[in-house]
Amino acid sequence: MNTLADHITQTLRSWVLQGVLAPGDRLEEIPLAQKLGVSRTPIRAALANLGNEGLLEHQPKRGYTVRVYQYEDIIGAYEVRAVLEGLACRCAAQKGLSNPAVSQLKACLAQGDAILSKGRLLPEDHQPYQQMNITLHETLLSAAGNSWVSRFTNQAQAAPFASDRIMLWDDHRVIDRSHSDHHRIVDAVIERDAARAEQLMREHIYFAGILLKENYERLSRKSAPDDAGGPYLPELAARLDKIPAVGPR
pTM for this one? Predict the structure, then answer.
């Protein structure tokens, strides 16, 4: 069962990965607890969890700051993901998809098509599209039938900024291109064209890494840390004020 600390950890992790909390931001327990409507105890546990994951850095007597990564770290993680998930698509194509897997993948494609057919990206569509994206990738991984590929892919996705749960939801053209990739990848796997399926998935993930790197660098430029260890107030406070509280205490 997920505890409140787990929920807070997930929330703060999402804020870091999506840029709500930018590289160099300094995090303090009391303001975060007030914003999220919880006590300091789960906040303290969540910050420690994210510190262990490498998303935050702990500074004695200064608390935590969002870790600043070099672009080589981000691209390197995506390069690993590209190779692993490309291999998964090759294996899935060679093995052949089951009927349930084909149905699941086609359902994902149809859901993405419906969302993007509006011609613009709506805030309420972000989570459904993100979940569709996760389901599609995980279905292909499972279809590979190789537990080692799945295991190491999960490890690569656990690296900061390398997860398929991260999505920059602000450019319809970019998301539309990404979903077009999904169509080509799924078609290649269904047609059992192993070499093409592998190459398409590699390009798909590598392109996502390039976009995330560019966004990360933009966030870094906007959030140059001050002498106190990071711009907690007032810039961060203003950003947090726009986010609904998690509740309950």
Answer: 0.70
Region of residue 159 (phi > 0: left; psi between -120 and 50: alpha; otherwise: beta): beta
What does the angle CA 210 – CA 214 – CA 219 come to, to the nearest 5 degrees?
Answer: 145
Distance CA 88, CA 94 (A): 10
Domains, in order of start, for the chain: 4-68+225-240 (1.10.10.10), 72-218 (1.20.120.530)
Reply yes or no on whether the pLDDT at 211 is more than 70.
yes
- Distance separating alpha carbons of residues 122 and 110, to the nearest angstrom: 17
Burial code (b: 16+ CB inside 10 Å, e: under 16) for 45-62 equals: bbbebbeeeebbbeeeee
Strands 63-66, 26-27: pairing is: antiparallel
Q: Where are the alpha helices (DSSP H) in 146-193?
A: 147-157, 172-190
How many Cα neighbours within 13 Å face the side chain of 201? 30
